Structure formats: structure tokens, C-alpha cells
Amino acid sequence: MPPAGLRHNRLSHRIYKRLEAALDAAHARGESQDLGEAFIEMGYHLSSDTWLQPDASVTHAGQREGEYFLGAPAIAVEVVSPSNTIKKMEAKAKLYFQYGAREVWHVNQKTGHVVRLLGDRSETLTQPDILTTPHLPGFAMPLAGVLA
Hints:
- The protein has a single domain (6-147), classed as tt1808, chain A (Alpha-Beta Complex).
- By secondary structure, it is α+β, with helices and mostly antiparallel strands.
- The chain has helices at 6-28, 86-98, 143-147, and strands at 35-40, 44-47, 50-52, 56-60, 69-70, 75-79, 103-108, 113-118, 121-126, 130-132, 140-142.
């Protein structure tokens, strides 16, 4: 398959920059000490033969690492591509949670919505909404500006 396109990457980068800024600000305030670093397109080695590479992510503080981070990130962001199916997205989310994720976002620029998964519950947000997370105080991402 060809790599993700320009529109997909621009969206991933916008989300990453907002996560990184909110994480830096939270750490400066002494908050979210259980979170580590924000990354774009980082690999996570989940098991002997399973790796995932979310479009953007936030690690756990002190997350084990080798060539890749070991286990799932605390927050995984997947930008939905035309090649993604609902089954593929659900399978990835299940793996993220199985290996330690706290939260997974499915960002769909085409439909203009984000599905935020928090373990056994989920919520769907649309462009007038502001995406927040209980894991990163101060993070507030207006979807209208990001998904445009």
C-alpha cells in the first residue's frame, strides 16, 4: 500500500502538535506525570509478532523501550484512511487496550467526526465539539479547526 497522503499527514501533524503543546504545559504545571512524550508515527511493539504505528500518540511515563516502545501508548490516535474498515479499526483499538492504552481516538476527516474510546465506553464528537481527555488536563481541541 502507498504511504498516507498529504491531507492525512497534515491532520496527524496538527493533532500531534496540539498533544505535544498540552503535554508540555501539563508537565510544567506538575500535572499528567503518568504521561511521557508525544510522538507522530511512532512504532509500538505489542507482542512477539505485533506492532502498531498510530498516527499520533502519547506514551506512558517511563514506558519501556527498545528499538520501539514496548506495549501500547497511553493515548493512541488513528486517522481513518480510505483503506481502513470498521473491523480493522475495532481490532486495532482492542489491541491497544489489551496492551495498556487508556484511550484511543478514531479521527475521520471525511465524515467530520472523532470517536473517542475509553476502554468499555465511547463517544462520538462532531465538528462543533471540542475534544478533551481526562488524561491530559488542559487539552482542548476544537474539531472544526482541526478537521477542516
